[in-house]
Amino acid sequence: MEISTFFQQLANAVSLGSLYALIAIGYTMVYGILRLINFAHGDVFMLGSYFAFYAIVAIALPWWVAFIVAIGLTAMFGMGLERVAYRPLRDSPKISVMISAIGASFLIQNLGVVIFGGRPKSFPSIPLFDTVVQLGSISVLSVSLFIPVVTFISLMALMYIVNKTKTGLAMRAVSTDLDAARLMAIDVNKTVSLTFGIGSVLAALGGILWTMRYPQLNPLMGVMPGLKCFIAAVIGGIGNIPGAVLGGFMLGIMEILIVAFLPELTGYRDAFAFVLLIIVLLVKPAGLLGKAVAVKV
Question: Can you tell me the mean pLDDT for 128-141?
Answer without folding.
Answer: 86
